[in-house]
Amino acid sequence: MRYLVTAALPYANGPLHIGHIAGCYLPSDIFVRYQRLMGRDVKYICGSDEHGVPITLRARKEGITPQQVVDTYHAMMRDSFKEFGISFDIYHRTSDKIHHETASDFFTTLYNKGVFKEEESEQYFDEEANLFLADRYITGTCPNCSNPNAYGDQCEKCGKTLSPRELINPHSQLSGKAPVLRKTKHWYLPLDTMQQEWLQEWLLSKEDTWKKNVFGQCKSWLDQGLQPRAVTRDLDWGVPVPLPGNEGKVLYVWFDAPIGYISATKALTAQWEDYWKKEDSKLIHFIGKDNIVFHCIIFPAMLKAHGNYVLPENVPANEFLNLEGDKISTSRNWAVWLHEYLLDFPNKQDVLRYALCATAPETKDNDFTWKDFQDRNNNELVAVFGNFVNRTLVLTAKYFENNVPARGKLDDAEKTCLDALTSAPKLVQESIERYRFREALSHVMDLARAGNKYLADTEPWKLYKTDPEKVATILNLALEITATLSYLCEPFLPFTSQKLQAMLNIQPKSWTDAFGNEALVAGHALGEASLLFDKIEDEEISKQIQKLEATKINNTPVEEISTGEKSLTPFKDVTTYDDFSKMDLRVATIVAAEKVEKADKLLKLTLDTGIDTRTVVSGIALHFNVDEIIGKQVTLLANLAPRKIRGIESNGMILMAEDGDGKLVFVQPARATKNGSTIA
RNA sequence: GGCGUGGUAGCUCAGUCGGUUAGAGCGCAGCACUCAUAAUGCUGAGGUCGGGAGUUCGAAUCUCCCCCACGCUACCA
Known about the structure:
The model is unreliable at about 555-570 (pLDDT under 50). The chain has 21 helices and 26 strands. The longest helix is centred in the middle third of the chain and has 31 residues, at about 370-400. By secondary structure, it is an alpha+beta fold. It binds one RNA strand through helix 6, helix 12, helix 14 and helix 15.
């Protein structure tokens, strides 16, 4: 049996922050270190995801090539991971030749098997730049919130997922011109038929073994019915489509990226196929919750379509980590960056590892605060773990010249202590096997607590004068606990483990060897003791909090400027009076309003136009209460063709003004005017 | 609106198949101790288990309705 553990490929257009670490890299690292200690055959795979549109956008913005962008961030992330003790067997990258070949072959195999559906569609094309525009290259006015700077795939203001065709007044980010529609061919993965054939059945079989949040999300997707998904894009940055006559097309990044796990394994070992194709291999994907669909549905679909590959055994996705009560945001710089932490807190990798593991968002979103970080360091690592080790070593140095004393007769206190000693590894093991890393870590701390209690109960410092032999037994056991702690904490606190083992003058051991035997023999000479953890003072914490508050202050004016100036929609093309005069604009009064059933944003308005009373459905329910708009005079586009919305016929359209923040205001006459008055 | 996940002590969370008095860590209060980085140990206060109804001898746990948070999704001319 062998394990293949993957951690989500981080996207190479920005540095790593604590959310990435807590959600994915730390849990996977703990899991893998544990598997190694159990003597299991495990490979731990990760790498930079270096394709896709945002990287090309950043490159354009900074006036460099996409390769330069990814080189920078790839090196940065690789180094941060290493320094933080994330123990990948390989940290690869998707711009590597091996990956291009692997992804290319993968596509070709599926193509030759006739898996894909081929389809032509109309996409926006920039005639000046002479290329098809990726969704991100197109901006326009959001049909949802009227934000004039919405992207073709998503409006960042209201969060709505869009397609470029929905944008009002679209323009190319490259030339600034309005793009034209042109036909293009793409290949689709037929998830809909796969759902029927096997995917649904396979996923439903995971109900008992996968985390609830993960299974629930998959179930939700299945219930809505899967749709075919394009696996190619018109773009020049990525893995080229390996079919003749298809220049300017690449594999879509979601198709390309997970294959990166395979290429990385290839780059790591010639036996890569054992890990991917032998039935007794367990494939485990560690990811954040934003990646559930790709790893639970789409990638398995790809692997199955290819044939011979194992499907994931488990996908233990975490939820999100917040920071001081707010969502972590790269663009708003609201984050604790790993590379900055490593500079600000040198040699304190384990403190962050501890804090993030203890507060990891395993079952729901969780909050990281600097106060919590400080408390966990001072009250748990220093006071419980470090202090127990220190008092044990100090006592041993004082009474036994730094040699391990012999164990004598065992009383009840000793038996209780030995119970804790033998049960701790089992508890930690069980928790890790169930992907409960917070719980596992607390079992480690419980052993240190048991040690502190043992010392407090037996009081060797009092006994020494009257019964030095008893003290020898006590310290023998206490030292045995410190040795066990050094082995047991390795997956979580690898730096501390090493340091402690040096202090005890012992060698690293696999868990199978370490537990169940006495780690220290009488007479063993201990090494030099030092403190495992230092207190973190208030000053250091308030410095970090101030740093965050500064970004908050810096953020506000920038955003205001950007929405105030940059975001104003450019003027539209010239029109004629004839065109304008076709529109019948009238003053009307809202006489009734009600929420449309089963729609969050829709209000059904009844208008008095002076000539008739009519119904208009308007998407303004998020901006106004029903009560506050009744009696308001508004501008009505009266001769707009009727249209059914949610089963209600809408006759016309209410004109709204929109400020930079997406707030809507009625356009109305400066004074109350007769209903039906014309506007021209 | 639909779907998913969650709501348990001041904070972070556990709670198995429905079963006695709902637990842990941190924080707080008191006591003990002095080997230890004022660290440790013990004791205690603190809960209408989001709200309401139901099933049951018995509900944090099962059913229904509602509220709140996060995510997915629908409606938007």
